[in-house]
Amino acid sequence: EQNIAWNIVKSYRGPDDSGYNLFETIIVQIENAYPSEKILKHNDTMLEVSVLDMREQKGAAFYEVHFTFQAYNDLREYIWNVNIVTDEVFPVNDGARKMINIVDNYD
User: Fold this and answer.
1) Nearest-angstrom CA–CA distance, 27 and 30
2) pLDDT at 107 over 60
3) Fewer Cβ atoms within 10 A, N terminus or C terminus of the chain?
4) Long-range contacts of 42-45 (CB under 8 A, 24+ apart)
5) DSSP-assigned letter for residue 19
């Protein structure tokens, strides 16, 4: 179920289900922040995904998905709540909200 929650987040394509998915959007935003570097290939760059079981706190189908990017000079964490029954994704922090907005408003 934790893998299901992560797959729902990374494949989220907005209300019209078209365009870039959420994972691609995050990667593009990170790469754009480092235009002269191949930041994702640096040895000290870390990408980490963790999924917490939130069923007791939020209901039967909820998980909290954390995506963390850490580079030599930057740390970004994106957090979403995911309902694995309805495939709904809810941003929890500002970084996640920004990425959802980009995906939702992609033309």
Assistant:
1) 5
2) no
3) C
4) 42/71, 42/72, 44/71, 44/72, 45/69, 45/70, 45/71, 45/72
5) S
Cα–Cα distances (Å) from 82 to 8, 26, 28, 71, in that order, read: 8, 17, 22, 26
Q: In angstroms, rounded to a whole number, what is the distance separating the alpha carbons of residues 68 and 49? A: 6
Closest CA to 80 of 70, 68, 61, 67: 67
pLDDT recorded at residue 103: 94
Q: Which residues pair with 50 in a beta bridge?
A: 66
Place of tokens 């995904």: 49
Taking 60 as the threshold, does the pLDDT of residue 49 lie above it?
yes
16/59 Cα distance (integer angstroms):
26
Total H helices, total E strands in the chain = 4, 4
